[in-house]
Amino acid sequence: xxxxxxxxxxxxxxxxxxxxxxxxxxxxxxxxxxxxxxxxxxxxxxxxxxxxxxxxxxxxxxxxxxxxxxxxxxxxxxxxxxxxxxxxxxxxxxxxxxxxxxxxxxxxxxxxxxxxxxxxxxxxxxxxxxxxxxxxxxxxxxxxxxxxxxxxxxxxxxxxxxxxxxxxxxxxxxxxxxxxxxxxxxxxxxxxxxxxxxxxxxxxxxxxxxxxxxxxxxxxxxxxxxxxxxxxxxxxxxxxxxxxxxxxxxxxxxxxxxxxxxxxx
Length: 265
Prior knowledge:
Low-confidence stretches: none
CATH architecture: 4-Layer Sandwich
Protein name: Phosphoribosyl 1,2-cyclic phosphodiesterase
Largest sheet: 7 strands, mixed
CATH class: Alpha Beta
Number of domains: 1
CATH superfamily: Ribonuclease Z/Hydroxyacylglutathione hydrolase-like
Mean pLDDT: 97
Distance between the termini: 5 Å
InterPro entries: Metallo-B-lactamas, RibonucZ/Hydroxyglut_hydro, WalJ/YycJ-like
Organism: Hungatella effluvii
Number of helices: 9
Helix content: 25-40%
Strand content: 15-25%
Shape: globular
Strand order of the largest sheet: 6-5-4-3-2-1-14
């Protein structure tokens, strides 16, 4: 399996996951040119995509869907409520609605030889999900846009080989920053985004010897920066109630405007 972040941040998200034979995107929240450039960099074309799994309907996760659907007829997977909201997004233009494939949280489905396991997350969207994706005995997950985590989330992130996890904001930067009060409350709330500290604490609950790679994603442009997210998460792991140190794992930050390195497991 391969996992690559084509883009991850508050302005746009698009993650590639694939096997030798099947290729999917988790979200398509950047323009088509950037998506195709990213695919080309890993030796693929847009025409080779087998599906796009959508976490939720916000534009930083959907803005590239229309072009890909029109150009290549790529199947679109999301919860019924998510797809209903996506269908109202006029900026996506016209594309065949028969490309929609409604899915349900905790009901697994296949895209080619990839087993996709959607699970519910708390975010201010219609019926959002994160995704765990498996092939043979390997598994990766993309988990962002979570206001908080609980045992249900922890259970769905056990035993992974690689993970892209939200590390959206630094709480102090957000509280002291220019955002209006209502927006600060939204981000900090249970249906907002995961802070650097909470990303580290969640990782402490799911670390194991065979977790090969961790990508920190969906960083806020205004309320975070890469070095801060990286160091905060490392500190939470090293000081946390777990048998590991951050140096035991390969941890990197997924860039907003650049590809991550290819994670192969």
